[in-house]
Amino acid sequence: MFKRTKVTDGTATGQGPDAENWDGKEVGFRKKSKVPGVMITQYIEKLPEGKSHPDFTRKPIALTIQEGKFAFFKAIVTGDPKPTVVWSRNNGDVSDPARYQSKYDPNSNEHTFEMPHVKPDQADTYKCFAKNEYGQAMVTVVLNVIEVGFKMTKAPQQQAEVANCNFKKVLKRRSKVVPKAEEPEKKEGEIDPKFWELLMSADKKDYERICAEFGVTDFRWMLKKLNEMKREREEEQAEFVKNLSDLKPIHINADGTASFELEFDLLDPSSSIYLYKDGEMIPYTKELGDKMKHCLRKVGRKYIFSMRDLMPEDAGFYQLDVEDVNMFSTDFKMVDFLVKIQEVKAMEREDAVFECVISAPLSKLMWFGKNMPLEQGDKYDIEVSEDKLIHRLVVKDCMVVDKGIYAACAGIKSCNAWLVVEADKGAPKGKKTARKTTRAGGSGTDLQKVAQEQQQILDKEREERKEKIKAAREAAAEAAAAEEPEKTADSGAGKDKGAAVKVERIDKTSVAATTTVAGDSGSGHSAGKASGGAKQDGSHADAGGGHSAGKASGGARKDGSIADAGGGHSAGKASGGAKQDGSHADAGGHSAGKASGGAKQDGSPADAGGGHSAGKASGGAKQDGSHADAGGGHSAGKASGGAKQDGSHADAGGGHSAGKASGGAKQDGSHADAGGGHSAGKASGGAKQDGSHADAGGGHSAGKASGGAKQDGSHADAGGGHSAGKASGGAKQDGSHADAGGGHSAGKASGGAKQDGSHADAGGGHSAEEASGGSRQDGSLADAGGGHSAGKASGGAKQDGSLADAGGGHSAEEASGGARQDEPLADAGGEPGITSGLSDIHAIRGQPAELTVKMNTDCDGAWFKDGEPLKSGGGISITKDANIHKLTIHSCRDTDSGLLRFVSGDLSTEGRITVGDVPEFDEDDLHKFSKPVIVRVGQNAAFKMPFQPQESLTVSWFKDGTELKDGGGVKIVREPNHSRLLLRDCLRSDSGEIKIQLKNPFGAVEATSQLIVLDRPGPPEGPVETVETTSSVIEIKWNPPKDDGGSAVTNYIIERQERGHSLWTKLGDVSAEKTSFRDRNVTHGKKYSYRIYAENPQGLSDSLETADSIMAGIMILSGPPGKPKVVSTSKTCINLTWTPPEDDKGVPIIGYQVEKRKKDTNQWLALNAINEPIEDVNYAVKDVTEGAEYEFRVSAINESGAGDASPPSAMACAKNPNMRPCFKDPEDFLVVRAGNSVRVKISYEAEPPPHITWLKDDEPIAPWINVINTEGMSQLVIPSSKRSDSAIYTIKAKNSVGEAFFDVEVRVTDEPKCPGPVELEQTVYGKVAVSWVPSPDQELDDRLYYVVSQHDSNTRMWKTVADRLFANTYTAHNILPGIEYHFRVYAKNDMGLSDPSQSPTWGANSNRVPISSNGVSSMEISFERPPSILVPLKVHTPPKGYQLYMTCAVRGCPTPNVSWYLNNTCINSDKNYYITNSCGVCSMYILRVRENDGGEYRVVAVNSLGKAECSTKLTVRD
Fold first, then answer.
1. Confidence of residue 149 (pLDDT cuts 50, 70, 90)
2. How far is CA 883 from CA 278, 856, 860, 1385, 1493, in A?
3. Which string of b and e fits 518-532 if b means at least 16 CB within 10 Å?
C-alpha cells in the first residue's frame, strides 16, 4: 500500500489551461501516468463508475528544427468526459494565430500544436494541459530552433554620432519586388511588378506567354514601356557589370536540384552579389554542401545558382542583384499531376504508352526509365499536346529487357508506374518476330477532357486578370481626364459662364472638346448624369461635364442669375441651395471631410471653405438674408445649401458624387432647384406650393431624373440624362407642359400626357426601346429625334414652340438637353473617336488589297504612306462612306509596301502593308513527288521536295493530316532549297498520305504523295465455317484477310490436326479466289482441327484456326457405364470403381468422365475434362471436404464425346473409418540434461479422435507439466527439467472403439561427478587390485558405471582396460616389476564421462641395485620444462557464414593445460567452438563464422613450471 498525498497544482500563473480564472487553490490527488513525464492531478478521491481523469497516451516529443521550417507537436489524450486541451509556453504568449495554431483531428484523436515558419524567438519550453471535471494532466516539451545564415534583423548597428550617443540602424537591403507579407494592398487591375522583372530577363519568344499569364493584352503599349525600362536597367547594370549574356531561367535538374545560370564580368571584383526570393534576401554558400540549401557557384564567367532538397515552399520569384542593381529574375513554379501514369502491360515487339496530365502548362517533363533519364530518340518518343498539359512517353518495340519502373518528374512532383513486358509465347523459337503495330497502355481516362477542363480554369483566371487590368486602365484614364474640370464663376474658377472645357483621355486616342451654351449639358465619360438646370427667365443654367459616378448640376434661379455647379471629384453629395434674390450660393471644392460655415445673426458671411475630408460641407443657417455658401469639396459626405427663411439664396454647387444633389425646401415659393451632376443617385426638383419652378436638371446617372409635382400648372420638367433609368415629364392638371427629355438610355423616354393640346414630344433614338412622339389632341406634331444609343434620345418639351433637341451621345446611358421655356436650342454633344483602326497586313502581288478605318462620327480624314500623303489615282482609290474610310489598292506591287497612316484631326491609326507571293512548287518536281513510295516492312522510306528559297518560309511534313516532328523514327532535314523526310523502320501502319506544306505570311501550298509499306498479309478473317461434314468429307469456309499487306494474296495454305495428336499436317493450298476447302481423307467419328494461312509475295500470314474440333460424320455416343461403387473413404479421399458400359455402340471407348454432387445441391461438377479422360475403371476423388457427403456418376468417352451418365452412386461421407487408437513409431527412452526442456512427442491414429491422458509412474502429472494435443499427435513438455523428473511417463489414448497405452522412460541427468580417491593393493604376484570411492551420483543414477584406464612407462600411452563396471573395484593383470603403472577411474552415464580420479604410481623399482659411478660424478637429467609456443596463431579474415580452423603448436613438460580466450573471456566450455589438443597441436574449429566471433583470440599454456601465450585477431567480412 502507498499513502496518497494531497497536493496543490504547481502550475505557474499564466501557464495553466485557464490562466485568468485559475487561482492555484484546486486541491487534488497526485496520480501516476503510464507515460513517463506526465503529471496528473485528480480532483476527487474516488471517481464515479465509468469516469476517468485526463491522461496522455502519446505525449509531445522534444523537437530541434531549423529556422523557417514547419514545427509541430502532437499529443493524444484520454479521459471521460472528454478533456479540453490547451497549449502554453513558459516565456511568451501563444495567442497569435499567425504563429501558433491548435488543431484537433477527430479521426485519429490527435491534438496538434503547429508553428509554421518557426523563428528563433519561439524556442522555449511548451506545456500541454488536458483538463476535465475530474482532474488535469500536464506534460512539458522543449523546442530548440537552429538559426541559419545571415540575419538582416541582427545586422550590426553603426554608431552615427558618438558625441550624442545617437545610433541608427543599418538600412536593410531589399529587392525591388516587395515581399508578400509587406506588399501594400494592390489596386484592382494593377500590374504586378514581377511582370516587368520577368520580361526584362526573358527571351522574346516568351513574351506572349508571360503577358497571357499576367493578363496583359496591349502588346504595343507593353513593348514600348519595356524598351524604356530596359534602357534604364542597362544603364544601371553598366556601372557594375559588362557582357551580361546567356540568361537561362530556373529549371529542375536530373539530380533533383533546381538551378539558373547567367554570364557576366564584374567591373569591380569586390562587388557584392545578393540573392532574393519573393523580395526576401536568402543566404547562400559558395559550394553546394549539406549545410546550406542554396548555393551560388562561379565557373569562368558563368554564375550558377543551385537549390537542393526541393520543397513546395521553394516555389517563388528569384532575383540576382549586383549591389543595388538587378541582373536576372526568374519565376520558379510548382506543378502537380492531375492524372498520373498507370501500369502498362505490353507484349513483346509492341509499343507501350505512358500518359499524364499536369495542372499548369509545361513544355517538357523529365522522363526516367529504370532510374536513367530518357530522351527523344529511336527507342523513345516524347510527345506534348498543344496546350502543354498532356505529356506522353512511348516506349517503342518493347522487349523483355525494357521491363521496369518508369517515372515522370515535374519539379519535385513525380509519379511512376511499372512496364510489364510479356514474352510472345506464340513466336517461333530461335526467330525474331515481326514488330507489332499495336500500342499498349494509356491512362484509361479521357485525358483530353481533363486537359480541357484545366485549360478552362487557366483561361478563366487569365481573363479575370485582363478584366481587372482593363478596368484599372479605364479608371486611370478617367482620373487623368478629370484633372482639368470645368470651373465656373460660382465655383471660383474665374471663367465666364458657358466656357468650354477640354477633357483629354489618358491613352490619347481621342480628345473631346465640349462647349456648353445656356441650358446645354456637356458630355462626360460617366454612368452618371450631366445636364443644364431649368430656368424661367432664360438665364443660364449650365452643368459642367465631369468624370464621376457622382452628380454635378447647376442650381435653378428665379431672377436669371447664374447658378452653376463646379466640377469636383467626390463620391459624396454636392448641391447648390435655392435662392430668391439671384445671389450666388455655390458649392465647390475637393474635400472628403466636413467643412461648414458657422451660424450668424448679423448678416455677415458664414462661408464654408473647401477641405479634404470625409465629412460634410454645407452652408450655415442665416436669418437676415446674408450669404450662406457651402464650399464644394471632394467628399463622400453631403454638401448642400442651407435653409433660409427670408428668401435669400441657398445654392448647392455641383460635385462629382455618388450621393444626392437636390434643391433645398422653401416656404415662400422661391426656387428650390437641383442642379444636374454626374451621379449614380437621384436628382429631382423640390416640392413647391406657390407654382414656382421645381425643375430637375439632367445628369449622367444610372438613377432617375424627373420633374417635381406642381399644383398651379407651372412647369415640372425632367431633363434628359445618360441613364439606364427612366426620364419622364411630371403630371400636370392645367394643361401646362410636362415634357420628358430624350437621352441615350436602354430605358424609356416619352412625352407626358396633355389635355390642352400643347406639345408633348418624345425624342427618338437608336434604341432597342421605343422612340415616338407623344399623343396630341390638337393635331400638332409629335416628333422623335435621332440619337446614337441603345437607349432613347429626344428633345425636351417647350411652351413657346421653340425647339428642344437632344444631341447624340456615345453611351448606353442618356444624353439630352435640359428643359427650357425661353431658349431656342438645347443640344447634347459627343466626341469623335476611332472604333476600328488599321493593322499590319500581307498582300499578294497582283491581287487587290483594301484597308478600312471606322469612326464613331462622320468626319474627314487623310491617308499617308511612309509620311507622304496619298490621293486617288495610280491604282489607288480612296473613298468615304459616312463614318467609314477606305483605301483600295487594285493590283498590289512591290512599291506598294510601306507604312500606311490615317489621320483625322488629332486622331490617327497606322498599319504596315507588305507585298509578296505565295510559295509554289515546280511542276516537274511536283509530278515526281506525287508518285507513291513503296517499301517493305523494316525498310526506310525517303521523300524529297525541292523549292525556291524564300524568307520567312515554314516547311511542315504531315502524315494522314498529322504533323510529323523530328525525332524517333522520323528525320526531317531542311535545306535552303529543299526538304527531306526519312521514315526509319517502316511498319505496315505507316502506310498513308504524306504531305509537305510550304507556308509564308502570304499563304501556303501543299504537295501530297503516298507511302505504301509492303508486309505479309493479315490472317484470314474468321470464324471458320463448316459447310459439310460426312463420314468421308469435311468442307470448311473462311473469309479473305482484312489487310493484304499491300500486295494481293496469291493463295491459301491449309493444315490439319487430328484430335489427340500434336502434329499438324499440310493438306494443300488453294488459289486466292477460292476461300473454301474439302478434306476427303477423314475417318468417321474422329475430330479434326484446321488452320489456314494467307500467302502473298512478302510471306505467310498468321494462321486462322478453327475454334472447336470438327467431327467427321454424325456423333455416336457410348451407353452408360455401371453404377459407381465406393471402395473406401477418408477425410481427404474417396475411392470409386465401376464397370464399362454394356453397349459401346461400336465405337471404342477412350476413357471416362467422373462427376460429383454434394448433398443438398443440384449441381453436378465434372472432376476431369473430356479431353483428359480417365483410362481406368477406378478413381480416387481427392477434391472433397471433410465431413461432407457426396454421390458420383460416370460417363464413357469416345471419339464423339461423353455419352450418357451412369446411375449415381450411394452417398459417401468424406471421413476416416472408425478405428482403435494406435501409436506410430514411438520412442520408449529419452535422456535429457538437467535444466533443459523435455519434449516427448507421440504420433497416433484413431477415429473418432481419442481422449489423451498422460501419467507419471502411473500417477497424474504435475500441473507445471504442459500437454499439447494436435490432430494426430500429443506432446508432453517439461519446461526446465530436474533429476526428480526422471520417471516412466504413460500416454493413454481412448475413443469409442478402444484404447491404447504406451510407456516412455524419461531420464533427466547430468555429467557425473568424478569418483573418490583411488587405492592400489597387490594381492598376488602380477595382479593389482584397484579400488575407489563411489561417485556421489551413483545413488541418483542407476545407469552410472565406471571406466578404468591404464598407463605404463613402457608404452607411455593411456588405454582403457575396463568398461561398464558397476562395482567399485577392478583387478589389473600382467603387472610386471620394474615398470611404473598409473590408473585413472572415470564415472560415466548417458550424458558422458566425468573427470578422472588419478591413482598413485605403482611399481617404483625398490629392488633395483644402485650402480656405482666409480667415483665419477654423473649429472641427473630432467625433461621438465616450462611451456613454450612453437607455432603461433595466424591472422584470419573469413567471410561471414564460412567455416574457420585456427591452430598453434605448444610444448612443455609436464604437459601444459591450454586455455582459449576471446576478448579475455574463456571459451573452452562454449559450444560454439570445437577445441582440441593433440600432442601439443592446439586447434579450434568454428562451423559458421558470426559477426560476434570477431575479436582478439589468445591461447594460454600453463604448467607447474610456467606459462606461455600467443594471440591473433579475427576479422569477419560481410
1. low
2. 51, 7, 8, 140, 105
3. bbbbbbbbbbbbbbb
Classify residue 653 as exposed, middle or buried by CB count within 10 Å of its CB (0-12, 13-18, 19+). Answer: buried
Strand order in the sheet with 834-836: 834-836, 849-855, 884-889, 876-881
Residue 704 scores a pLDDT above 50: no
Q: What would the pLDDT profile of 652-677 be if each residue is shown by its tens digit? A: 333 333 333 333 333 343 333 433 33
In the chain, % of residues over pLDDT 70: 69
CA-to-CA dists, residue 869 to 838, 882, 897, 1265, angstroms: 16, 21, 15, 123
Band (430; pLDDT cuts 50, 70, 90): low
Query: What pLDDT does 400 receive?
Result: 86
Backbone φ and ψ for 1504, nearest 5 degrees, come out as -70, -15
What's the 3-state SS for 531-587?
ECCCCCCCCCCCECCCCCCCEEECCCCCCCCCCCECCCCCCCEECCCCCCCCCCCCC
Question: Could you report how far apart the first and last alpha carbons of the chain are, in Å?
Answer: 55
Contact between 1355 and 1376 under an 8 Å Cβ cutoff? The reply is no
Residue 556, pLDDT > 50, answer no
Task: Return all residues near 508 (Cβ < 8 A) that are at least 6 apart.
Answer: none
Question: Residue 1258: left if φ>0, alpha if ψ -120 to 50, beta else—which one?
Answer: left
What angle do helix axes 219-237 and 193-201 make, rounded to 10 degrees? 70
- Between 998 and 828, the higher pLDDT residue: 998
- Answer for the pair 1510, 1432: CB distance below 8 angstroms, yes or no: yes
What's the whole-number mean pLDDT along residues 702-718? 37
Contact 974, 955 (CB under 8 A): yes
> 1454 preceded by cis ω (within 30°)?
yes
Peptide bond into 1248 cis (omega under 30): yes
Least confident of 728-737, 976-985, 1408-1417: 728-737
Say yes or no to pLDDT of 461 above 70: yes
pLDDT at 305: 85
Q: Could you count the other beta carbons within 10 Å of the beta carbon of residue 457?
A: 11
- CA nearest to 834, candidates 1143, 508, 1132: 508
Distances (CA, A) of 1001 to 841, 914, 950, 954: 9, 9, 11, 9
Q: How far apart are CA 1437 and CA 49, in angstroms?
A: 67
Q: Phi/psi at 1248 (nearest 5 deg)?
A: -70, 170
pLDDT of residue 100: 93
Given the C-alpha cell 499578294, which residue does it identify? 844
Percent residues over pLDDT 90 in the chain? 27
Q: What is the pLDDT of residue 1384?
A: 94
Q: From its phi and psi, is residue 391 left (phi > 0), alpha (psi between -120 and 50) or beta?
A: beta
Joined together, the cell numbers standing for residue 623 give 436669418
Distance CA 137, CA 17 (A): 10
Query: Phi and psi of 1119, rounded to 5°?
Result: -75, 175
**C-alpha cell recorded at residue 475:** 479608371
Cα 167 versus chain centre, distance: 51
Residues in the chain: 1518
At 451, which helix (H) or strand (E)? helix 447-481
- pLDDT score of 681: 35
Q: What would the DSSP string read from start to end of 177-244?
A: SPPGGGPPPPPTTPPPHHHHHHHHHS-GGGHHHHHHHHT---HHHHHHHHHHHHHHHHHHHTTTEEEE
Chain segment 577-607, per-residue pLDDT in tens: 333 343 333 333 333 333 333 333 343 333 4
pLDDT digits (tens, 9 = 90+) for 92-110: 889 898 899 999 998 889 9
Torsion angles phi and psi, residue 1129, rounded to 5: -135, 155
Nearest to 1495, CA basis, from 1477, 1475, 1473: 1473
How many CA atoms are closer than 13 Å to the CA of 85, on its beta-carbon side? 26
CA atoms within 13 A on the CB side of 1469: 2
Cα(424)–Cα(398) distance, integer angstroms: 11
